[in-house]
Design a protein that fits this description.
Elements (H helix, E strand, L loop, with lengths): L7 E3 L6 E6 L13 E5 L5 H20 L12 H14 L16 H22 L5 H8 L6 H22 L3 H9 L22 H9 L10 H14 L6 H19 L15 H9 L5 H21 L11 H14 L8 H12 L4 H13 L3 H5 L6 E2 L6 E4 L14 E4 L4 H12 L15 H4 L4 H10 L17 H12 L4 H8 L4 H10 L9 H9 L12
Antiparallel strand pairs: 1-2, 2-3, 4-5, 5-6
Length: 552
């Protein structure tokens, strides 16, 4: 044995892992009198086997804690309990889905064996009843039948009947039972007599077990509310890095969007997933008073909720992709109507530079200046921390990096950008006058821009504050400009300054074959001293790429 995992065994010949656990005598009654739990894990992978052992141990401990699932744990909601009892019955090999069956699709040999076993059992029963054989002989003769279909079905019937008898005693109505015993008109000894019953508790584990034995699933049909809740839960627990602002913003947006879609369904959020069809999606799209691009975005979120349910609940999976057609149609429409974001012209850039310099909000002013200086996207500039700005280095620089709090949804390179005047003095003055130094210990306190760099509404506030400094000259058809256009502008200015494509893409954080070569050459980040002269050349550019003009 090359591992030290309790209860994990391995078959020497096949190298297949298994589970073997001794059952203490005092709790063997919980496991049908078994002295050991022995089960093949059907894998040769140690990691998979260990995961299966963990699950079996959890099942074993909980079965003991709940008395064989005859009593409920306080933390169990009925749906959770139903799922646990389903799982427990499968582990014990007593779930209805594990029972053999005889029907029109059965193999003729199985049918012949079944009827042969039934005939033999009936003959033996008659023989023991008439005294032709002893009870010991009767038991010995029945032994070979234990692995047959007839035996397994009869054993399941007997166990279900035993549980029914117990439940009838458990839920008997004492007062009515006494009254009927005293009533001369009621034969309480009759074979078909049933004790007067109180209402059975539907959350009683034994009642749930009996109903499952009778073929009831008890697992409700999944609804749109279930899919919504599951999607939000899986999004929050995902191991994918997301900054807190992105996490909160998307969670709120997804909830709101799913609720809005629910208003178009026949039974609202309680509509069964199997009842939702393409017509419901079309009704949602037709009534959406937003752009085609926004419709695509909204449908993509709804589709993610739908697919998330199918991924994480395979046993209740709902087939078909209801959103595919609507997404493709809306995407084509969005391409036809979409404008093209362009760079700022020299005049527009000059207006922005003058306007942002006069901005009274110091956070807005400096975020805008950083974006114009090196083409950083808004969120990267806004999410800078004090530790990212190296003012006392021989070559001052700023680091843009993707950390757990700065994941932007786009895969960009970590990079070091040198700081030259006047942005260097601007940053130095801002830090001296406005940076609080992370004194209160809050998540936002270490942010260089705590009000616009952190919080559920910071993204909208940033965009609104920066957008007022962007003014178009017009005359450029369907193309448009936004704060993000500063990034395009930096790329055009770098090209005009003669900066090679690989270095320009590195400074912008673009991931490409060229920029990746820079990373491979210098390691994590290219030294800022290598690009100081380039930043001076870019800053000196006053004219760059031409934008096509249209007559007024």
């Amino acid at each position: 044995m090359l591992h030290n995992i309790p209860y994990l065994t391995i078959t020497p010949k096949t190298k297949t892992y298994g589970y073997r656990r001794r059952v203490p005598k005092k709790i063997q009654y919980l496991f049908d009198g078994k002295k050991e739990i022995v089960k093949s894990l059907k894998t040769k992978s140690l990691s998979l086997a260990q995961a299966e052992v963990d699950k079996l141990n959890a099942w074993f401990e909980e079965r003991v804690a709940t008395g064989g699932y005859t009593k409920s744990s306080r933390s169990d909601f009925p749906l959770d309990l139903v799922r646990k009892i389903h799982s427990d019955m499968k582990e014990m090999g007593k779930h209805p889905s594990q029972l053999p069956s005889i029907d029109v699709h059965s193999d003729p040999r199985d049918m012949a064996n079944f009827f042969g076993d039934v005939d033999k059992a009936m003959s033996l029963k008659l023989a023991v009843d008439t005294g032709e054989i002893t009870s010991a002989e009767y038991s010995a003769e029945l032994k070979p039948l234990e692995n047959g279909i007839a035996w397994k079905l009869r054993a399941a019937q007997a166990e279900r009947g035993f549980l029914l008898s117990w439940l009838r005693k458990k839920y008997r109505h004492r007062e009515k039972t006494i009254a009927e015993n005293l009533d001369p008109n009621i034969d309480c000894d009759a074979e078909d007599y049933v004790l007067p019953q109180r209402k059975w508790d539907e959350t009683d584990p034994e009642v749930i077990r009996y109903r499952i034995m009778c073929g009831e699933s008890l697992l409700p049909h999944p609804t749109w509310q279930n899919a919504t809740d599951s999607y939000i839960h899986q999004y929050k627990r995902s191991r994918i890095k997301r900054n807190p602002e992105q996490l909160l913003k998307h969670t709120k947006a997804a909830k709101s969007l799913c609720l809005r879609f629910g208003t178009y369904l026949s039974d609202g959020m309680n509509t069964s997933l199997s009842e939702i069809d393409i017509k419901d999606v079309e009704a949602f799209v037709d009534s959406s008073n937003v752009t085609d691009a926004t419709i695509v975005k909204n449908l993509t979120i709804l589709r993610a909720a739908w697919n998330s349910w199918n991924t994480h609940n395979p046993k209740q999976k709902t087939e078909s992709d209801l959103f595919e057609v609507a997404i493709n149609d809306s995407r084509k429409a969005a391409k036809q109507s979409a404008g093209i974001r362009r760079s700022l012209t020299p005049n527009e850039y000059a207006y922005f530079s003058k306007s942002i310099s006069q901005e009274k909000n110091q956070e807005v002013r400096l975020i805008g200046k950083i974006m114009a200086y090196c083409g950083a996207p808004t969120i990267e500039a806004a999410k800078l921390r004090r530790e990212d700005v190296k003012l006392d280095s021989s070559t001052p620089y700023v680091i843009f990096r993707s950390t757990a709090d700065k994941v932007t949804g786009k895969d960009r390179l970590d990079r070091a950008v040198p700081l030259i005047e006047p942005i260097l003095s601007e940053l130095r003055l801002y830090i001296q006058s406005h940076y609080t130094g992370g004194k209160d210990g809050s998540p936002a306190s270490d942010c260089l821009f705590p009000k616009l760099g952190y919080g559920s509404h910071s993204s909208a506030a940033r965009s609104k504050a920066l957008r007022k400094h962007i003014v178009s000259e017009g005359r450029y058809g369907q193309s448009f400009i936004s704060p993000y256009s500063l990034r395009h502008t930096f790329k055009d200015r770098a090209s005009k300054a003669g900066v090679s494509t690989d270095i320009a893409e590195y400074l912008l954080g673009h991931k490409s074959n060229q920029s990746s070569r820079v990373h491979r050459q210098y390691g994590t980040k290219m030294p800022a001293s290598e690009t100081v002269e380039l930043m001076h050349r870019i800053a000196a550019v006053t004219h760059w790429a031409m934008n096509e003009e249209y007559d007024q």
